[in-house]
Amino acid sequence: MSRGFSLLAAAVITVSLIMTSCGSDQLNEANGSNAEGNVYKDVKLTLRHTQIKESSQVRLRILQDVVAQTESEYPGLKIEMEGIDEVVNRDQKLKAEMAAGNPPEIFEVFGGSDLKLYVKAGRMMELTPIIELLGLKDKFASLDEFTVDGKIYGLPFGGYSEGFFYNKEIFAKLGLAVPATWEELLKTADTIRDNGIVPFGLAAKDAWVNGMLWNTIAERYVGIDAFYKLLTGETKWTDPGFIQSFEAYAELVNRDYFTKGALGLPYAEQGGQLLNGEAAMVFTGTWDANRFVGSEAGGLDGKIGFFNFPSVPGGLGDQTSINASYSNGFGFSSKLSDDKKAMVIAFIHNFYTEKVQKRTLLEDKVLPSMRLSDLSGVDPLMSEVQRAMANATSSWRAFDSIVQPTVGADLGVGLQELIGKVKTPHEVAEHIQEKQEKANLASREK
Fold first, then answer.
1. What start and end residues bound the annotated signal peptide (predicted)?
2. pTM summary value
3. CATH for the 7-159+326-364 domain, from 1.10.3720.10, 3.40.190.10, 2.60.40.10, 3.20.20.70
4. What is the pLDDT of residue 186?
């Protein structure tokens, strides 16, 4: 059925896509099929996604549209979509599949430390020649988190930034301004709390959620380079700056700023605390922005804003930086047959377009991973996000894409222990440092 889909054949196909209208007839002809495209009639691909939450339905529809388009262009192609929880996918299922050597053919994957492990194991298909020949390489805002030793192994489908989404009505009613310093943030939160409103909405049952706010606090105190140096032992979790970050997080807990019973609440409920007026602020990523506009926002549509985390006293990090990155994307199995590789190229060609990226920005409020020539129609909330990013002096990626996955998971648990007041900041730091040393040793032994 296949002619042997070598890299040279891939080049022929992708060049054909670029030089023509990129339709199925040209792809079929380049791969030696007949006019009816029957060579592909038995091709089946599996696609793993995590767009199963109510807040992700727009994202899912966009993906479904691309899948339907690709299937219609190549008769007989069937892309079977499987949706599962993002935490289950990242921390359990995909890891087990990678260890066994049988990942899905197309799958969502985090860049950074996750990706590097899978590349080292030989599980990821290299995409460098494909995106170069499709003319895509220079279209992305950043491919850093999907690049290993100069080669590209995944493509981000969107970007994000993290910060405070806040209820402008509450701020106006209480006479509050957006805080620019840690002290101002505490005073703002005190006023909100004293008026019977939760300052910071939090749903802490899923351990990773707690890392978002802490991550930015820590960056303010130690700077992002300190996270990378944890891998070499040049810095330690027990260093003064990291201790300060845990103490600052514990201070927010001790001042009763977070939602009561947060440890029992799933992440899906966090945004609702802002929308129902229970909380004045939530610290989260822009992937949640689609909840804060339109019909789901209800009476708060147009009344929710965004601001970057303020500076901290004596911090060594960039005090006006922002956590913004392009770490979520699609990867592809290195074990694809020749014909499946051809269809993966067709999927990439259809998914990574300005049209799809513009839909993602306008309909789903996800920052585009590709540079757009037309930014018309962007709503006010996303404009605030983009202004915050433009005003930031630097950006950096989340800690869990830098440190080993086991360390990142333990940190989330440690923050839960701070929220539950069962460990002190020093105890949490000491435990994570032990995990870091074990992870570093394991990395050196491989």
1. 1-24
2. 0.78
3. 3.40.190.10
4. 99
